[in-house]
Amino acid sequence: MITVAVANQKGGVGKTTTAINIATALAATGWKVLLVDLDPQGNASTGMGVGSADREQSSYDMLIDGAGIGECATPSRIPGLDIVPATVDLSGAEVELVNVDDRTGRLREALSQDAGHDICLIDCPPSLGLLTLNALTAADTLLVPLQCEFFALEGLSQLLQTVERVQERFNPDLGILGIVLTMFDRRNRLTDQVSDDVRSCLGDLVFESVIPRNVRLSEAPSHGLPALVYDHTCVGSKAYMALARELIGRLPERRKAA
Ligand code: ATP
Ligand code: MG
Question: How many helices (H) and strands (E) in the chain?
Answer without folding.
Answer: 12, 7
